[in-house]
Amino acid sequence: MTLSLIAAVDRRLAIGLNNRLLFWLPNDLKRFKSLTTGHTILMGRKTFDSLPKGALPNRRNLVLSRQFGWSAPNTECYSSLDEALGHCTDDEKLFVIGGESLYRQALPLADKLCLTEVDAEAPQADAYFPGWSSEVWEEVSRERHPSDEKHPYAYAFVTYRRRKR
């Protein structure tokens, strides 16, 4: 299994406020869809609740919840990261899509980080992506984009790979 964390982060690694994304970047949303479609996504229940239409189409949706008996259409619910991972196959591509506590749990197990690094600082945030070390992670690609009429901030699509253990 390949385990990737995918997120859009500001300069301080902020990712959200009140269970909402900090930035509306159409190209980031397109990249997210392109990378995750046809694969498995794993999220916490609050992240799931923030999705406007529920489970994302054309993906296997796994949701972590501590709430006994929680369920939603087109999802599989698990009570822990280990339990969810135990229901994935060796050849599965799994993307953790949030939130903060799930990113923190999954980072030590991840193979890749697929980040949109926004060249800005959100005025307010209450959720953050965990910090990581360049001793553990190496940058393998960076695609820079300037601000434009649809994207108020410059940003870069950056992929990091875990260095050999």
Please give a structural write-up.
The chain has 165 residues and is of the alpha/beta class. It has a domain at 2-7 and 26-110: 3-Layer(aba) Sandwich (Dihydrofolate Reductase, subunit A), CATH 3.40.430.10. It is built from four helices and eleven strands. Strands 6-5-4-7-1-8-11-10 form an eight-stranded mixed β-sheet, sandwiched between helices. A three-stranded antiparallel β-sheet has the order 3-2-9, with no helix packed on it. Strand 2 and strand 3 form a beta hairpin. It is globular and about 45 Å long. The model has no long low-confidence stretch (mean pLDDT 97).
pLDDT averaged residue by residue: 97
For the biggest sheet, the summary is:
8 strands, mixed
The general outline is globular
CATH architecture of the domain at 2-7 and 26-110: 3-Layer(aba) Sandwich
> Care to count the β-strands?
11
How is the CATH topology of the domain at 2-7 and 26-110 named? Dihydrofolate Reductase, subunit A
Give the low-pLDDT segments.
Answer: none
Secondary-structure element string: EEEHEHEEHEHEEEE
* Proportion of helical residues: 10-25%
Please give the radius of gyration in angstroms.
Answer: 15 Å
Alpha carbon gap, first and last residue: 17 Å
